[in-house]
Amino acid sequence: MFRLAAFDMDGTLLMPDHRLGEKTLSTLRQLANKPMTLTFATGRHYLEMKDILANLNLEGYLITGNGTRIHDLAGHRLHASDLSSDCAEELLNTRWNTPASLHVFRDEGWFTDLDDPQLLVPHEFSGFGYQLCELSTLPVTGNSKVCFTAPHEVLLELVPSIEAHFGSRVDLCFSAADCLDIMPAGSNKGSALALLTGKLGIEMSECMAFGDAMNDREMLENVGMGLVMGNALPVLKQHSPHLQVIGHCQNQAVSHFLQHWLHSPHLTYSPEY
Q1: What does the entry list as the binding residues for Mg(2+) (predicted)?
Q2: What does the alpha-carbon distance between residue 191 and residue 205 come to, in Å, rounded to a whole number?
């Protein structure tokens, strides 16, 4: 018996154009009427996600910033974790030997010193955008995560430097091939979902979850049913080979799977690719 469904957004619920398909939206509403507790677990900012749900007329718990923030249905904050002030200061003021751009997430929004309209493409449907500033002027407290964006090969070259500098003081994860997130140690979607389910009186074994990237791994591994997207990062499939793979986000595979689960659970599921 599943009581909660947790969904990543980009590469999972959202299609490659970063929009939610009509079939997916319809299925989410059916699921909510089952009733099933909906939870949206994403690297995106809370301010963006609350507007997205409001515009779609959907209700759901929000795990944002890859697990650094949890909000309930009424928008009350249930949990927050931030980078320590020393880690934030070092991230913002160290001259990293990389062409990757640096982005900072705080409760007030998304901050960067790079004015690049291409960064806004994934956010066109929500209208959410960055605020330009000199990053060294930001407070060293209240920073939920920092991310570097660049082609994957560039970010792979940066990882050893970050690991050598910070050790276990921070956690690293790829939320997308071109996005390397630096998180407070112990903060991830899985730990956040465990906190949320504990407050709701739901066991993790009573949850299903869908994801496509390494920032979803802890969540997928620790629920009763973890589903990996067909378009998932290869490294996620390699690290979690025991998890079921469904179809591609282009084909609204989450909806496809859930329609099967809702109406034909006695039949073997065959993913669409």
Answers
A1: 8, 10, 212
A2: 14
Check the annotation: does 51 bind a ligand: no
- Walk me through the domains of the chain, giving residue ranges and CATH numbers: 4-80+188-264 (3.40.50.1000), 85-184 (3.30.1240.10)
Q: Of residues 8, 82, 181, 216, which has the active-site annotation?
A: 8
- Going by C-alpha positions, the residue among 58, 78, 59, 76 that lies closest to residue 68 is 78
Q: What is the dihedral of CA 29, 31, 32, 35, to 10 degrees?
A: 150
Q: Integer distance in angstroms from the first to the last C-alpha of the chain?
A: 27
For the segment 8-43, what is each residue's pLDDT rounded down to a tens digit?
999 999 999 999 999 999 999 999 998 899 999 999
Specify whether 51 is catalytic.
Answer: no
Q: What is the pLDDT of residues 214-265, one digit of tens each?
A: 999 999 999 999 999 999 999 999 999 999 999 999 999 999 999 999 998 8
165-169, Cβ contacts within 8 angstroms, sequence gap of 24 or more: 165/90, 165/94, 166/87, 166/90, 169/84, 169/86, 169/87
How far are the Cα atoms of 118, 178, 241 from residue 234, in angstroms, in the given order?
25, 14, 10
The reply, when asked if residue 10 is annotated as ligand binding, is: yes
